[in-house]
Design a protein that fits this description.
Aspartate Aminotransferase, domain 1; alpha/beta; seven-stranded mixed sheet; Aspartate Aminotransferase, domain 2; 2 domains; single chain; 14 helices
Amino acid sequence: MTSPELQRLNINVASAQPSATYRMMDRVAAKRAQGVKVISLSAGEPDFDTPKHICDAAIDAIRGGQTRYTQVAGLRDLREAVADKFRRENGLEVSWKDTIVCSGGKQVIFNALAATLNSGDEVIVPAPYWVSYPEMVQLCGGTSVIVPCDADVGFKLTPAALAKAIGPRTRWLILNSPSNPTGAVYSRSELAALAEVLLANPHVLVLADDIYEHLTFDGAEFFTLAQVEPRLKERTLTMNGVSKAYAMTGWRIGFATGPQWLLEAMEKLQGQQTSGASSISQHAAIAALRGPQDFITESKAVFEERRDMMVKLINETPGLSCTVPGGAFYAFASCAGLLGKTTPAGTLLRTDEDVALAILDEANVGLVHGSAFGLGPYIRIAYAMDKESLAEACNAIRKFCLSLRD
């Protein structure tokens, strides 16, 4: 039997929580293994196949022998393509030397935090937030300062709330637009107002998580912070990747641009951690960034149609309500009207987590509870699925809600 001493963990790892999204996905998988049909609206990934020309580029790379280690910060050709993307789409005047490529967007964020945080350093995280932000901060030895941003402010950070949250130990602000889990999108004027606060606090770095950049709806234009306020460029890490825009979640390629001192520190860390990202995936990412962009336009139109359908169906369901998200592929629905009720199986719904678990157990639909993202009582519904399955899931949820008793 292993002794307790041998099982002793790093204190930050021991106190970290596993991803709520993956916990729900595990529950869904367990039900499916029992032969139960479950519709999962919990995963944050497009349901489309990766475009053919991207897959062909990967196959060509394999057949061409491009299967060896690459530079830690990424292939020169890919970094050139990344720099071109930032110049073309975001108005950021950067060269390939101002970029880094990592094994997914998560590694970009983790490397940045691990390279810069010391004990006592604080990271401002607007809530609702992506579930991994606070856990990454903790794993890297920092402290999250959670700033609630409820529906009254469109689930977005206000300049007043930002100014109040900044302290002498503030190291980073994490800003995600369009947002996971709410789909909230910051306008140019909203970013400019936040920039004024940041300019008055020169000790604060900014991590702009733009991974859902290409999924903005209703004709809204996307802006990133360093584009809106160039004076913040030298203390902003602008992060993106190919996972959401090109349906390449499994290829694990994220990238960023930022100040040289930070990129060098991130590269040093990555060199002792994973080294360069997959050579095959990097060649696929070059094809994604340099090849036809029709897929983005076509998939965006499909997601916007799904959004409209989902919001309508959710708002027609007793006990649920949802504002119209401006981007991404999530609906963040209030389930306050369900709390205090009892399910047919006898479960009292005290929290939004109770709601999500009961919907899985009794309606066979997988969702993630909003409090896992820092704000309840909500449920996050990912509509990255065909309309027929989405309608079937919504009907099951509606039937569940109608079955509740006071």
